[in-house]
Write a structure and sequence with these properties.
single chain; about 200 residues; alpha/beta; Rossmann fold; about 25% strand; globular
Length: about 200
């Protein structure tokens, strides 16, 4: 296993059960609506399939992850699993998927632009790239920073994304859609109080 795989395997070992819970359930209808049905879908960093299961019905889903133990659980759902590191070129041919999903993944990558380019490569024309990132600039994170704490408490987070940064990252796509979801008080100010930033974008 690669050093990246070993690092994430260790990080997830004590959190694997926790990882089976979808922290921001408001993501689910957004993902389902963006993906639709009758599609060939690739879930990047699928882990045990906690989120994948919500768009599995009616679709052919492939999941890729470095965590072999989590992939064993994903396979039990009927997901085709591939052991792989998303920091490397994806082991799939051009234009081979109708949808590519990156749920809570881009923030873990040193070079997320490389993965976004790979997602675009393997999408068919008109295919959709859909995902989510933590809203690292929400009020709670800003208050942590003012107290001298890291804005995020996950040591594997390498990047923080604002809506503007996400639009720039998705510059090679069209019909970009961004929404802030989750959070008890999100309706009072989604940009400051939403927990996640969800996105969808289409390949030309």
């Amino acid at each position: 296993m690669s050093s990246v795989g070993e690092r994430y395997e260790e990080h997830h070992r004590t959190r694997r059960d926790e990882g089976d819970f979808v922290f921001v359930p408001e993501r689910i209808p957004f993902f389902q609506g963006a993906i639709g049905q009758g599609k060939r879908v690739l879930d990047l960093g699928c882990r045990s399939g906690a989120l994948t299961r919500h768009f599995l019905d009616g679709n052919e889903v492939v999941g890729i992850d470095v965590d072999r133990a989590a992939l064993e659980k994903a396979a039990e759902l009927g997901i085709e699993t591939v052991v792989g590191n998303v920091d490397d070129p994806l082991p799939f041919p051009d234009a081979s998927f109708d949808a590519v999903v990156a749920g809570e993944l881009l923030e873990h990558l040193q070079f997320p632009d490389a993965l976004v380019a790979e997602a675009r490569r393997i999408l068919r024309p008109g295919g959709v790239f859909v995902g989510s990132v933590p809203n690292a600039f929400r009020l709670q994170s800003r208050l942590r920073f003012l107290r001298g704490l890291p804005p995020e408490d996950d040591p594997t987070h390498l990047r923080m994304f604002s809506a503007a940064a996400m639009r720039e990252l998705l510059g090679g796509f069209v019909d970009v859609r961004l929404e802030f979801v989750g959070g008890r008080y999100r309706r009072l100010g989604p940009r400051l109080l939403g927990r996640d930033l969800v996105f969808s974008a289409k390949r030309t």
